[in-house]
């Protein structure tokens, strides 16, 4: 459910949503954490966001909460489950597009109080349009809070630089380099470097 209005030069949009999601043998959970089958269900999803923007600035505040069921199928062991785990997500993002300058920033917090878990993430980037080219640099960080009940924390940061070439009105080519530094309590990603090339087309 969405509602939009304007106040002076600002455009405002509020949105409320609700729903649920269920997956059997979740590929991402299998690949990242466990290596075996995990069934996942997000229930009682409710949340909303508020957007505010004008010709230069934009901002969004978001909140979502739900309960989570996860059922684990370790090979050679009994199936076990975590049911009804409550979680909350709070996010804030902002942007500026002024003359040739582009600034983007985002931060969010993810909480599962019953599991003694809290994580935070933020990212920021700055770019400058130079004719058909837009070089940019940025930094992002992810941190899990160390608690008596949660000690194997993931902590990493990424530095990145990119250049976008808008060679047609509806097409651009982007080259990006990322450098990830892993400070986790265990080897989650290890230090890594990645060079990527992407082509965007708007039809």
Question: Which class of secondary structure composition applies to the elements?
Answer: mainly beta
Percentage of residues assigned to helices:
under 10%
Strand order of the largest sheet: 1-2-3-4-5-6-7-8-9-10-11
What is the terminal separation in angstroms?
28 Å
Please report which band the strand proportion falls in: under 5%, 5-15%, 15-25%, 25-35%, 35-45% or over 45%: over 45%
How many DSSP helices? 1
Element-by-element helix/strand order: EEHEEEEEEEEE
Major sheet summary line:
11 strands, antiparallel
Weakly predicted, low-confidence segments: none
Shape annotation:
globular
Mean pLDDT level: 94
| Overall number of strands | 11
Describe this structure in words.
The protein is mostly beta strands and 203 residues long. The protein is built from one helix and eleven strands. It has one helix at residues 27-34, and strands spanning 2-7, 10-23, 37-53, 57-73, 80-98, 101-112, 117-128, 133-144, 155-168, 171-182, 192-201. It has an eleven-stranded antiparallel beta sheet, covered by helices on one side. Strand 1 and strand 2 form a beta hairpin. The longest helix is centred in the first third of the chain and has 8 residues, at 27-34. The radius of gyration is 20 Å and the shape is globular. The mean pLDDT is 94.
Short description:
The chain is mainly beta and 203 residues long.
What topology emerges from the helices and strands here?
Layout: E1 2-7, E2 10-23, H1 27-34, E3 37-53, E4 57-73, E5 80-98, E6 101-112, E7 117-128, E8 133-144, E9 155-168, E10 171-182, E11 192-201
Antiparallel strand pairs: 1-2, 2-3, 3-4, 4-5, 5-6, 6-7, 7-8, 8-9, 9-10, 10-11
